[in-house]
Design a protein that fits this description.
Blueprint (H helix, E strand, L loop, with lengths): L1 H10 L2 H19 L5 H12 L4 H18 L1 H7 L11 H9 L3 H34 L4 H17 L5 H15 L2 E2 L6 E2 L13 H19 L19 H23 L5 H16 L11 H25 L5 H12 L7 H5 L1 H27 L1 H4 L4 H20 L2 H19 L5 H24 L10 H29 L11
Antiparallel strand pairs: 1-2
Length: 506
C-alpha cells in the first residue's frame, strides 16, 4: 500500500501531469498524420526522456503510444489512409462506412471502444504482471535462455507474409548485436579496430534510425500522396455508440481479450492483433456478407484489440525484460537508461515505479476520451499540415536525439546507416520488428546460454531437467517443428504438377 501511495504521489505531481498531457497531444498529432507511426512517436520521445526522471519518462511514452494508436483511426475514416499500421486492418471498412454518411458514428465507435479496450488491457496487465513476476523470481539462466529463444521464435512465427524474410531480419539483428565486446570472454568482435564499435551498436540511435528515419524516407518518397479529406461535417460523435455497444458487447470483449493475448506475444503487437481480430470477427459473424460495405462489427473487434494489445505487450516487458512489440522494445531501452533493469526484481526493488506505470496507463486511457474528441473535431486542420514541412522538422529531432544518446557523431552515423538499411528492408518486404528483437534479446540469449553451459559443464540435457525450462524448451521445439512442417507442405504444394484442363479449345 505504501508503494501505491508513493506511486500516486509521483504520478499526480503537477510537472508529471503536464508531461502526460503534452505527450498525449504529441501522440494524438503523430498518430493522426498518415505515415507517422506510434513506434516513431515513441522513438522521437526517447531523447526527450533522457533528461527526465523515470516516472515522467515512462508517462510520456505510455501516453503518447496509447493516443497514437487511436489517432491512426481518424485518417483511416476520413482519407482511407491509416495513420498507423494498427489501423490498416479496418481502413477500407471504416472509409466505406464514412462514405455511407456514418462518419460520426464511425469515429465515435473508434474512440469509445479504443478507450474501453485500452482499459481492459490495463486491468489484465495489473492482475497478471505481479503474479507472473512472483513466479519468475525463481527463474534461472536456463528458463531465461528458453524465454529469449521463445521470444525470437514467436517473432518469426507471427511475421505476416514470408517467415523466411522474418528469419533473415532476425539474423541481421542478432549479427549487429554481436558487434562490440564479447560479454563472456571480453574479446572484441567485428570492431575492425574502431574504438566506437567497442561499445557495440548503441540501442537508441539504432531504434531511431530503423523506425523513425525509415518512415521519413518512405514519407519523402510519397510526399505528394496525401489524399483528399471527406467533405462531411462532424457532428455529435457519441450518438448511437451505446446502441452499438449493446449489440456488439461480445465482439468488444472478444477483441479486447484477443488483443491482450496477441500483444503479449513477443514481436506481435497491435498491428497483428487488429488483423487477427478483424478476421475472427468476419469468420464468426452472423452477417459476413456485410463486411466490406461499411459494417461496424469488424471495427468494434479490431479497434478494441489494437488498444488492449498495448497493455498486453507490457506484461513480458516488465516481468521478463522481453519486449512484446517494437514500442516495448524501446521502453526496455529507456528502463535500462534509467537504471531500472526490467524483470521480476524490479517488482521488489522499485514497486512504486510499477504501480506508477499502472496508474499512468489508466490515466492515459481516460484522457483519451476528451483529447480524442478534440482531435476528431480539429481533424480537418491537422490533416492539412503539409508533410514537406513536417518531415524536415522530424529529421532534425532524429539527428539531435541520436547525438544526445552517445554525445558524439557516432550516434548519428548509427542512426543514418540503420535507417537506410531499415528502409531498404521494408521496401523489399523484410519486417523490421524481428531485427529489433534480435538486437534487444541477442545479448540476453547469449549471456544466459553461456552461463547455463558453464553451470552444466557442457551437458546440453540439463536445459530440459528443470520443469519450467523443460516445458519452455518443448514449446519452442514444437513451434520450430510447426514452422518447418508448414514450409515443407508449402514447398510440396508449389512443386505439385497441375492437372491439365480437360476443356477442349481452352
Amino acid at each position: 500500500m505504501d508503494a501505491l501511495i508513493t506511486a500516486a504521489g509521483l504520478v499526480f505531481d503537477p510537472s508529471v501531469l503536464w508531461v502526460i498531457v503534452a505527450s498525449a497531444a504529441f501522440g494524438m498529432f503523430v498518430g493522426a498524420m498518415p505515415g507517422l507511426t506510434a513506434t516513431m512517436a515513441t522513438a522521437l520521445l526517447v531523447p526527450v526522456t533522457f533528461f527526465m526522471a523515470p516516472v515522467p519518462a515512462l508517462g510520456a511514452i505510455v501516453t503518447a503510444t496509447a493516443m497514437a494508436i487511436f489517432a491512426g483511426d481518424i485518417p483511416a475514416a476520413m482519407l482511407r489512409i491509416p495513420g498507423t499500421p494498427a489501423s490498416a486492418a479496418y481502413t477500407d471498412e471504416s472509409y466505406a462506412m464514412s462514405k455511407k454518411g456514418e462518419l460520426d458514428l464511425n469515429l465515435g465507435v473508434n474512440l469509445v471502444f479504443s478507450v474501453l479496450g485500452g482499459l481492459i488491457g490495463v486491468v489484465i496487465l495489473i492482475f497478471c504482471a505481479p503474479i507472473l513476476a512472483e513466479a519468475a523470481i525463481n527463474f534461472s539462466s536456463f528458463e531465461y535462455f528458453w524465454l529469449a529463444l521463445l521470444g525470437l521464435t514467436c517473432a518469426i512465427f507471427m511475421t505476416a507474409g514470408d517467415p523466411l524474410k522474418g528469419l533473415t531480419s532476425l539474423i541481421f539483428g542478432l549479427l549487429i548485436n554481436c558487434i562490440g565486446i564479447d560479454p563472456t570472454a571480453g574479446h572484441p568482435r567485428f570492431t575492425f579496430g574502431s574504438v566506437e564499435l567497442l561499445q557495440g551498436i548503441s540501442f537508441i540511435p539504432a531504434m531511431i534510425g530503423m523506425f523513425a528515419l525509415s518512415e521519413l524516407l518512405r514519407g519523402a518518397v510519397s510526399v505528394d500522396q496525401q489524399g483528399a479529406v471527406l467533405a462531411q461535417k462532424i457532428g455529435n460523435i457519441f450518438t448511437g455508440v451505446w446502441a452499438v455497444f449493446k449489440k456488439y458487447w461480445f465482439n468488444f470483449l472478444r477483441g479486447s481479450a484477443l488483443g491482450v493475448a496477441i500483444g503479449a506475444l513477443p514481436g506481435a503487437g497491435a498491428d497483428i492483433a487488429a488483423w487477427i481480430s478483424f478476421a475472427v470477427s468476419k469468420r464468426f459473424s452472423k452477417t459476413p456478407e456485410k463486411f466490406g460495405t461499411g459494417h461496424i462489427e469488424g471495427i468494434v473487434d479490431a479497434t478494441s484489440a489494437n488498444n488492449s494489445a498495448l497493455g498486453g505487450a507490457w506484461i513480458p516487458a516488465l516481468v521478463f525484460g522481453i519486449p512484446g512489440d517494437s514500442i516495448t522494445a524501446i521502453v526496455i531501452g529507456v528502463l535500462y537508461m534509467k537504471g531500472m533493469n526490467p524483470g521480476p526484481t524490479v517488482f521488489l526493488q522499485n514497486p512504486q515505479f510499477i504501480y506508477a506505470v499502472f496508474i499512468i496507463f489508466v490515466l492515459a486511457n481516460i484522457l483519451m476520451l476528451p483529447l480524442g474528441w478534440a482531435a476528431i473535431k480539429s481533424a480537418k486542420q491537422i490533416l492539412r499540415v503539409p508533410r514537406n514541412v513536417l518531415l524536415p522538422i522530424i529529421l532534425l529531432f532524429c539527428v539531435v536525439g541520436a547525438y544526445a544518446m552517445t554525445n558524439s557523431p557516432y550516434g548519428i552515423i548509427v542512426m543514418l546507416v540503420l535507417g537506410l538499411i531499415g528502409w531498404l528492408m521494408e521496401e523489399n518486404g523484410f519486417p523490421i520488428a524481428p531485427a529489433i528483437l534480435g538486437l534487444v534479446l541477442g545479448e540476453m540469449l547469449e549471456q544466459n546460454f553461456m552461463t547455463s553451459m558453464i553451470k552444466a559443464d557442457g551437458n546440453a540435457m540439463i536445459f530440459f531437467e528443470r520443469p519450467i525450462a523443460g516445458v519452455l524448451g518443448v514449446v519452442t521445439a514444437l513451434i520450430w517443428g510447426t514452422m518447418i512442417w508448414r514450409g515443407m507442405m508449402g514447398r510440396k504444394a508449389t512443386l505439385a504438377p497441375t492437372e491439365p484442363d480437360p476443356t477442349p479449345g481452352t
